[in-house]
Queue: 4 jobs
Job 1
Amino acid sequence: MISVNSCLQVDLFGQVNSESAGLQHIGGTGGQLDYVMGAFKSNGGKSFLCLPSTRVLKDGTRESLIRPTLPEGSIVSTPRSGVHYIVTEYGAVNLKGKNTYERAELLISIAHPDFRDELIEAVKKMGIWKTCSKLQK
């Protein structure tokens, strides 16, 4: 089984928000989690959660949709334990079975290049990377 769904944000732990912008409700989950888990658990199945790497705010500034953590009040539509592939215009990464360190590194690799250094600094502060990483400068 193959499933393809869109999402609004993903954090560096691999948690996916497809329903809200912080406390602002955008939409319901529909059957996203059912399809994600069905593909995740099926023999040879793949689940793809897709999002652009950034969005432009009303004031014209751009923000990354791959974030250190989800904003307060965000709904976790797909838990990190069920996430398989995350896709942006910078590629696709397979998070299935990966630890927190690996998830953060993979997600940063498909974030918009303008935000990668900021995300690296965030994971250092969060204690996800306690030792040297090939992405650290």
Job 2
Amino acid sequence: MTNRPEGDARAARNARREAARQRAQRARTQQKRRQRGVRLGLQIGLGVVLLAAATIVTLVLVDSVKPAGPGPSTMSQGGITIGQDLKPVTAAASGSTSASASPDSAATAGAGTVRITLYVDYLCPGCGQFEQANGDYIEDLVDSGAATVDIHPVAILSNRSQGTKYSLRAANAAACVAEHSPNQFYAVNQALFAKQPDEGTPGLTDAELTDVVTGVQGLSERSAVRSCIADQDYAKWVDEQTTAVSEGTIPGSTLKEFPGTPLVLVNGQRYELTSPVTNDDFRTFVVTAAGATDATPTPTPSATPSPTPTKR
């Protein structure tokens, strides 16, 4: 017969063991729940991160393949043609590959026979030197009607301005003027070179670039030009044109490879810069390319055909 106190003690021990077992079981259950919660949280968090990453990648890919959109209406194949009175002219009038959507009638009538083509980067030192030596000479030829000039702004040196992409921003600004105030394009082109920053520097800020452009006398649609520069309306288009030129698609030229900026052509013949760059050398080249003995423009009445370069 079992001693009653001993039985009570055994029952008490069994009760304690059962209670301990139940507590351990509850603890294990709670631990498993916490672990499941952590795993679920990690899975959800990882899912959110992956979804965000996928969204970003998708946006980048979509943005990278999105077409650049049309360029300025006064530019065809990346360039604007400037003719008599420094107004944009049509391809038919100038014989160039560039065209104007709404050319000035006087400019159309005064288009000349000598065609000068320039591929320029507004950060390119050689371009600045060429402009300084020959800009006024070209202006006289074009203004009188003795020549036309096709200007193609490109952004070859976008990685040479400490990450600010000055070449691209400046070419975009030029394109903005070609669209909104084309009659002042040549003057703006000159102004951009007059304020040309040194290669390797950040270049002008957007605000400074806008001040240079809008500071040109006679500029029209200033508000539209400012917005166009700020929003970089033609940046993708400029980038697309630059890529095409770099890969050998060079309107106005028979070249298969782009030699860099400045690329200067006269009636399709390439002019190679001298060192130092001089107007006398370029003037001689123009004379030869034009098949004349002098490239000094000779003004004539508007009713007569535009002059070709003739001897003074």
Job 3
Amino acid sequence: MLPFVFKNPLVEGVIEKRNTQFTMQVNYNGESYHCHCPSTGRVGNLELSERPCLLSSSVDSSRKTAFTVEAISLNKPEDSEKKWIGINQNAANRYVEHFLRNGGFSKMISTSNVICREQILGNSKLDFFVGDTFIEVKTSLLFLQMDIPEYVKTKKIAPYSAKADRMTRHFIELGNSIGKNQRAIMLLCFLL
């Protein structure tokens, strides 16, 4: 069983620009579409305009955007073979849950336990609680673990960000709130 199956096949477009934290303008089949961007922060230090992207179509007719940008590529738009970087940080939790339910982390966590989503620990909401273990999933897009081709435009590297502050807060919260006989895992997920 796959962790997530798109109702319709993904289609390829080219990002024109990032409008806001949550939206991008994407050219697909010669038309410009207002699309949802599921990564609210930077993707590395990349300038996303002119990058190929994969789009999922929305099945919700009440949604304001017809598509969601699921992945980007550092290849040129005209390249026939592309490698993709997943940018849908929400999808990472679905993938982790799938692997938890199917024994993918059996060396770290017992698969016989109930899997609870979004559990409060101190002042933080953590992604999972399984048995005696809290799990916080982080999908790092700030630093890409790959070489950036010369033709890809980049931005100045941003200083320490609010997302890094949030991750630091989660580390501290985990350390201060974890009870006797409880464990915590900070799981870094890369969607390459």
Job 4
Amino acid sequence: MARKNYEIRQDAQILFHNKADYCVGTGRIGLALQKEYQEQLALVQKEIGFSHIRGHGLFSDDMGIYREYEDENGKKHAEYCFTYLDLVMDRYKELKIRPFLELGFMPEKLASGDQTVFYWKGNVTPPSDYAGWRALVQATLRHLMERYGADEVTQWPVEVWNEPNLPGFWKDADMEEYFRLFRETFAAVKETDPRFRVGGPAICGVEDEKWIRCFLEFCREEKIPLDFLTRHHYTTEVPETDGHYGYVKLREPEEGFKNLQSTRDIVDSFEEYRGLAIHITEFNTSYVPNCPLHDTNQNAAYIAHQLSRLGDVNESYSYWTFGDIFEEFGVPFTPFHGGFGLVADGGIPKPTLWAFHFFKKLQGTCVHRSDDAVIVRGEDGVYRGAAWNRTMDGNGETLELEFLLPVEGGEDSRPGTFCIVTQTVDEETCNPLKLWHDMGEPSSLSEEQKRLLKEGSRPFVGSCRKRAADGKLQVELTVRENGVVYFEAFPVREESDRGYSYQRAIGRPEK
């Protein structure tokens, strides 16, 4: 067992840029037409409440936006169908989440080739006609502005394509061709309404420093007033495949943080782009959607640590993805299949969902930040904190944390008496994956199995009363291996009914 003690200063103010709830990823946009997808997103919005959502396939053929027809003279004309787009965006609006628009992939009839990616065959080739591409982008944006209002839609960030540095996502990973796509698209969007914010290049991994530097050099040469830069962030080694699954080894977090810092340094080395916002439009541990790690408490503890640091050099960071209705490798065989999501199929929250739920509450002045905890003091004077105990190889130990927090009693509170409420997510208290395993790993869940798994996926709530001493409140947390613990500490306000005694009610003598 490891033990750490921290004493918080009265005047503590620590830098902590918390944007855990800014954006979340989704599978291709067309999946939003499914009932289970909508239910999973509604659950995530209830428990976390993200501001934006980003996904692939806005222009893929399953959305049906781009069409062509021939007139009586045999001449081809483009036309646009926004029926499915409206259904998706209407539902996002109902759930109070705005799109972070990713422009891609290529409609088949507008594509220059037939290379596709994923089970659902997203076309990843450049447009055969850039004028047609620009017209498609503008027609879509104008439709959205007409339907939802220009003042609203121009607030939606616009990202050009996805991972063009990887040949699977952009034919031949052709840098010059992507730069052309970006230039043409940037101009088309700004011509539609200059208030739109446009960015890229949404690169991931391979030659990332080269791509970012070359991209900024291109924007400088073309005098493109870039609004923000985007990149992705994954933290595992290449998966080892076994059957339907990819097993991975986690990288030390500092490797990833160092890589993110290199992006910040490159951006800031360009005078005209110094301080430019960087959005991580995808991040997770593994980059494959069949990785059992995603379903574990280990993933939750590792991601909690990531959430404590990702805001240091980035404007936002979008977890990939909110739910497991997702088909890059095909339709999954079981509810726990290692999907990216915060929610397993069947509407079962995974442990990582609660890491985001806890960080959403960390609003106020940060008074403590370490490699195992973040604590803030809200405007209401309440202390809120999250602690984690991440392990890399499953051989960790329980962590005992003690915090001494400076406090004062309020006018209507018993002097020095505080309530400390904890919510615990670890392998003993909130582990739906183990419960599913113990059930026999059923591929098709009965209603009773779903009910039990949902019950087993909630944090364990504990509480205690403590008296402060010498203006300090002692908060003690036990964080087991791969655990995440949230706490709130606030003054007790007595509102007991006449004659009521809690001690007598539980059969104990009065103190």
